Amino acid sequence: MSKEDYMNTSVQEPPLDYSFRSIHVIQDLTSEEPRTGLRPLRHSKSGKSLTQSLWLNNNVLNDLKDFSHVVSLLLEHPENLAWIDLSFNDLSSIDPVLTTFFNLSVLYLHGNSIQRLGEVNKLAVLPRLRSLTLHGNPIEEEKGYRQYVLCTLPRITTFDFSGVTKADRTTAEVWKRMNIKPKKFRIKQNAL
Fold this sequence. Notes:
about 10% strand, 7-stranded mixed sheet, single chain
């Protein structure tokens, strides 16, 4: 990796855009042409994209098998990936592979089939995650959905395209105290 390539990797670069491509499996990205935007994508000497944004929205993905491998074939610096759009697919869970991209700051997962609110816990390890969408998933119907996400991911500043306010944080903390009991208490209560 040349210093020049590293310095040229930027969020300002247009995204590598595979939206609306009827992609069923991640491996299809290697044979599919990305959409072209107003500005051309820049590439390294090896032919890989220098962007930090990958858009896979509005496809028919139901898993992220081989995601890391395929991303490493497409991007010169996959470790710098900052924005992943997986909205409007058919993902039923949050794949742990997403937690390996420590520079991820924007993650769109709205309009999928995520069933369990606990899936959000996986994202707590992402130190730079600031913007997350999950609306349009079955988990949105669970009681305390917004509060649970804000308690689990206290560093996010935008959730479901709405800014997170001080009042949201206070409400989430009160909700947490009322609904998430310490494990010790839970064990004692179950023993009775």
